[in-house]
UniProtKB/TrEMBL annotation:
<dbReference type="GO" id="GO:0015031">
    <property type="term" value="P:protein transport"/>
</dbReference>
<dbReference type="Pfam" id="PF00528">
    <property type="entry name" value="BPD_transp_1"/>
</dbReference>
<keyword id="KW-0472">Membrane</keyword>
<dbReference type="GO" id="GO:0015833">
    <property type="term" value="P:peptide transport"/>
</dbReference>
<keyword id="KW-0653">Protein transport</keyword>
<protein>
    <submittedName>
        <fullName>ABC transporter permease</fullName>
    </submittedName>
</protein>
<keyword id="KW-1133">Transmembrane helix</keyword>
<comment type="similarity">
    <text>Belongs to the binding-protein-dependent transport system permease family.</text>
</comment>
<feature type="transmembrane region" description="Helical">
    <location>
        <begin position="195"/>
        <end position="220"/>
    </location>
</feature>
<keyword id="KW-1003">Cell membrane</keyword>
<dbReference type="Pfam" id="PF12911">
    <property type="entry name" value="OppC_N"/>
</dbReference>
<dbReference type="InterPro" id="IPR050366">
    <property type="entry name" value="BP-dependent_transpt_permease"/>
</dbReference>
<feature type="transmembrane region" description="Helical">
    <location>
        <begin position="78"/>
        <end position="103"/>
    </location>
</feature>
<feature type="transmembrane region" description="Helical">
    <location>
        <begin position="14"/>
        <end position="35"/>
    </location>
</feature>
<feature type="transmembrane region" description="Helical">
    <location>
        <begin position="123"/>
        <end position="153"/>
    </location>
</feature>
<dbReference type="InterPro" id="IPR025966">
    <property type="entry name" value="OppC_N"/>
</dbReference>
<feature type="domain" description="ABC transmembrane type-1">
    <location>
        <begin position="78"/>
        <end position="264"/>
    </location>
</feature>
Length: 280
């Protein structure tokens, strides 16, 4: 068994995070095949039913099955968060690599743009984009990606600036290796672990930001299920005893975000033993 995999398997916190994330991913993938109820089906005669054997998570105000909507909401949250993570990695990582290695006016220009983006709180920035483009899936994705890109950029830029001053980079330049080949062959492999750690953190950030946009009505629009929107709908009945409407989607957000954060923290400790020693 590879040493890295063996170390992960011996880490209970890492295992816990991975198991929780895997359970929610399997719920999103296999749920529709196991629980064959249309999440958009309205049945007014079954409205606001508490959890029972027929509806394990109860029904909402128009009789829609909450479990079916929970599964559909998990699909939305996971897919959007994955898109944001991949897009942020590609765009922010590429800009960070280029600016950190090239330096000069390009580095200054891109850094100022990123600083301007970072001057806005991430959720406020995503909300502004969603307002400007109109509520919906596309605007929510664009807003969250825009908020995530500077995180990748700043982390990768600082890492590349450190790497470009190492002796083996000077040797590659002396041998006439082009900047593009130097980045691909010598710089990029040294930043993979950093990108991986950041991607785990951004995945968690995407889940929470998407839920926040849905909560204020700027994310995915009803009747499509989304955990943040489901919590908003459940608030109207929180004081009348229908606790299940907001509890289950809120629990899904908490578990998914907490598991992603736990994995990111353990990866950071694994690849950066100095930070683990300082924390201890």
């Amino acid at each position: 068994m590879p040493r890295t995999l063996r170390r992960f398997l011996n880490d209970p916190e890492m295992l816990l995070g991975v198991v929780v994330m895997l359970a929610l991913v399997l719920t999103a993938i296999l749920g529709p095949f196991v629980w064959r109820i249309d999440p958009l089906k309205v049945d007014m005669l079954s409205s606001l039913m508490p959890p029972d054997w027929q509806h394990p998570m109860g029904t909402d105000d128009v009789g829609r099955d909450v479990l079916a909507r929970f599964i559909s909401g998990a699909q939305v949250s996971l897919l959007v968060s994955l898109v944001v993570t991949v897009a942020g990695t590609l765009i922010g990582g590429a800009l960070g690599l280029a600016a950190g290695f090239a330096g000069g006016w390009f580095d200054i220009f891109v850094s100022r743009v990123m600083d301007a983006i970072l001057s806005f709180p991430p959720l406020i920035l995503a909300m502004a984009v969603a307002i400007g483009l109109g509520p919906g899936v596309t605007s929510a994705v664009i807003g969250v990606i825009l908020a995530a890109i500077p995180w990748y950029y700043r982390l990768l830029r600082s890492e590349v600036i450190r790497i470009r001053n190492l002796a083996y980079i000077d040797a590659a330049r002396a041998l006439g290796t082009s900047p593009a080949k130097t980045i691909v062959r010598h710089v990029l492999p040294q930043t993979v672990s950093t990108l991986f750690i950041q991607a785990s953190s951004v995945f968690s950030f995407s889940i929470l930001t998407l839920a926040g946009l849905g909560f204020v009505g700027l994310g995915i629009q009803p009747p499509l299920p989304e955990w943040g929107t489901m919590i908003t709908e459940g608030l109207a009945y929180a004081l009348t005893g229908q606790w299940w409407l907001g509890l289950f989607p809120g629990l899904g957000i908490f578990l998914l975000a907490a598991a992603a954060n736990l994995v990111a923290d353990r990866l950071r400790d694994f690849y950066d033993p100095k930070s683990a020693a300082m924390a201890g």
